[in-house]
Amino acid sequence: MLTNLRMALKALTQNKLQAILTLLGMSVGVAMVVIVSGLGRGAQLRIESQIESAGPTRITIKPGNFTPSAIDSRGQQDSGGGEPSEGIATTSASGSDGSAMGDMSENEAVVDARRRITAPKKTEFKTPPTPIDATQVATLGKIGGVKSIAGQMQGNATVDAGASLPAGIMRVTGFDPAWPDMTGWRLIEGKLPGAGEHESGAPVMLVTPDVAKRLWPDAKSAVGQIVPLGGKQVRVVGVIKASEDKGGSIVVPAAYVPNKLAGDLLGRTSYDTITIRTQSIGVTSKVAKQVEEELRKLHGLGEGWANDFRVETQSNSALPGMGSDPRLARAVHSNSAGFEQTSWEEMAKSLRQAGRTFSYLLGGAAAVSLLVGGIGVMNIMLVSVAARTREIGLRMALGARTQDVMVQFLVEAVTLAALGGIIGLALGGIGLYVTEHGFHTATAISPVMLVVAVAMAAITGIAFGFGPARRASMLDPVIALKSE
């Protein structure tokens, strides 16, 4: 095989112009595969990021349950007051014009509504509610469909006496490593705490520009400044723009620290809020239901006990509860979970279908480019066979078998295509770089796609090189030796 490879490279150098033109055609084809796949993947990731930033993949968990059971967002409603929480459908109903409607007894939504109506009422409440700690968060993080999970705790910490700061109290917010990405923090200066600093509870903190200007008005940079809190010298390691920051308080400046450090400063280990980001909008409602079931097990809640926590998705948290007609609130809140699940699943299905269609279109364009490159490979191989007829006849006269001649020309075709593929990867990478930084278009390179592009180039070489290779192997040695 090495001998065939050396012969292939030598043959290609003998026809430099033809080889260069063929390499150009193949490299352009592979570059098109890389560019269109990078553009398609970049567009898909940007769309997913925009959807995630809107909140449909986010689930919020809070300990305690201060929402009356009659309007609980998870359907644990009480149908007291003479008004049923759901519309009761019978097996035979009539429309407004008197015509009979279809049989609703097997409708999934009706069955689910009837199940919730007839379910035992949860009338027992656990007081005080079970706190949610890091152990429970770790358990919830193992649920299928969970992309990331982060806990958060907040409280006021007193600045140690003797500190030359214009504030005696700081609002401390603890966060986990996944929190900055989940909430879209933007690092302005410095760095974010590393995984080791989170695990050890290192005395480091992040502040916003407003807080930095408030505490150190004359300093060029807040990074490196020290804040004495709870006997610890907490150092500012970064300045961030936090999406949840609304300008902060002039009286009580806010700081963000690792959760372990926040627990030490605040004297507790329980979280105020847990945020989960799911893998896609299509599984958000399913994950929320599994989270509720898992927390009920962890908190030891029996069948007749109401939740001592709240699990809210974006739609649930946006629905008003207080200040509206209780009957309307019961109907809307109790059915929002099913409506939300159907809506998100349909949206996810539409996005997947659109992504597949887009990929097919881009794949078709790339396939045409590779086809053109493959035709170029076949052309140069046919020319090579015609020009080396006497060489082929001499090899066969000296004992070369038919398959030896075929392998030789196939190796030449694959070598030509593979070299074009490697050059195409470089051209594609340059094209994506220019597109992203010059035209500010989202791109993303998948390592798998790079391997696939080179493999497709090699397969193209085999497919379009087989014909010329077979033609060379079928030559009659006597006739081949007579050719000029």
Which residues form runs of ≥5 with pLDDT under 50? 68-102
Strand content: 5-15%
Strand order of the largest sheet: 8-3-2-9-1-10
Number of DSSP E strands: 10
Sheet with the most strands, sense and barrel status: 6 strands, mixed
The topology string of helices and strands comes to HHEHHEEHEHEHEEEHEHEHHHHHH
Q: Which structural class fits the helix and strand makeup?
A: alpha+beta
What is the percent of helical residues?
Answer: 40-55%
Mean pLDDT: 77
End-to-end gap:
29 Å
**Overall 3D geometry?**
elongated
Question: What value does the Rg take, in angstroms?
Answer: 34 Å
Can you count the helices? 15
Structural commentary:
A hairpin with a 2-residue loop joins strand 6 and strand 7. The two termini are 29 Å apart. The strands form two sheets. The protein has a six-stranded mixed beta sheet. Strands 4, 5, 6 and 7 form a four-stranded mixed beta sheet that branches. Among the domains are: 2-52 and 350-482, no CATH class; 146-275, no CATH class. The chain contains 15 helices and ten strands. Helix 13 (402-438) packs antiparallel against helix 14 (447-473). The chain is 53% helix and 13% strand. It has helices at 2-14, 16-53, 108-118, 134-140, 179-183, 195-200, 209-215, 259-266, 284-298, 314-318, 326-387, 389-397, 402-438, 447-473, 477-482; strands at residues 58-63, 146-158, 169-175, 186-190, 204-207, 226-229, 232-241, 254-258, 273-278, 309-313. The protein is an alpha+beta fold. Residues 68-102 have low confidence and may be disordered.
